[in-house]
Specification:
The protein is an alpha/beta fold and 215 residues long. Helix content is 33%, strand content 20%. It has helices at residues 17-25, 49-58, 76-81, 97-106, 152-166, 183-189, 198-201, 206-214; strands spanning 4-7, 32-37, 63-68, 84-90, 110-115, 133-137, 171-175, 193-196. The protein is globular, with a radius of gyration of 16 Å. Bound molecules: D-xylitol-5-phosphate and zinc ion. Zinc ion (ZN) binds next to strand 2.
């Protein structure tokens, strides 16, 4: 499968959000990555429903919603109504993860699980067949523009083996510090989806930067 690119709008210009979403529409990006933070699960607050509603009015690509929030089951249905096609919850925020995955599937969305840098991929083995996407955090969640954590490659290889062994079709997404230098190495290790925020939006030519990541 050709890999997917999911630019994160966390790094977009919120005063020009229509312009930035239209740039993504005309780009080679596959998904639009939406970071929702609650100030409790992570030490930052990003944006909420009204802003997502404004974004989705312009977006012409699938919305990949990454929920960095406690008790995500409270809002999953709302995010689905706001157009989320992939809904990702954090392993560390979900004591009843299997139930969370069921809830997302019942709403007709793809279900993702994100894991923090310290969380071993092996913990996902028992549910891997129920997971459409695993988001391996390659920075500590909460902020864009952080430095990529090198231990990520090893986690990708281990997770790939678990997915293959189970005969699952789970995608591996990498989120945090992705750039043109580490992208080829991440894909070689087994990544399927690359999220990139600051590398895309701080670039002089975001369209060319996306095209380059897609190559
Ligand atoms: C971090 C978010 C990321 C972030 C990535 O908590 O989950 O999606 O936007 O930003 P960069 O690519 O700048 O590390
Ligand atoms: Zn994210």
């Amino acid at each position: 499968m050709a890999h997917l690119i999911a630019p994160s709008v966390l790094a977009a210009d919120f005063a020009n959000i229509q312009r930035d979403i239209e740039m993504l529409n005309s780009s080679e990006a596959d998904w639009i990555h939406i970071d929702i933070m609650d100030g409790i699960f992570v030490p930052n607050i990003s944006f909420g429903m009204p802003v997502l509603e404004a974004m989705q009015r312009h977006a012409k690509k699938p919305l990949d919603v990454h929920l960095m929030i406690e008790k995500p089951e409270r809002y999953v249905e709302t995010f689905r109504k706001l157009g989320a096609e992939v809904i990702t919850v954090h392993y560390e925020a979900c004591p009843h993860l299997h139930r969370n995955l069921q809830q997302i599937h019942d709403l007709g969305a793809q279900a993702g699980v994100a894991i923090n840098p310290h969380t071993p991929v092996e913990l996902l083995a028992p549910v891997i067949k129920d997971v459409d996407l695993v988001c391996i955090m390659s920075v500590n969640p909460g902020f864009g523009g952080q430095k990529f954590i090198e231990g990520t490659y090893d986690k990708i290889r281990k997770l790939k083996a678990i997915i293959n062994e189970a005969g699952a079709s789970t995608k591996i997404e990498i989120d945090g510090g992705v750039n043109a230098n580490n992208a080829p190495l991440l894909l070689e290790a087994g990544a399927d989806v690359l999220v990139a925020g600051s590398f895309v939006f701080n670039a002089e030519d975001p369209l060319a930067t996306i095209a380059n990541l897609k190559k």
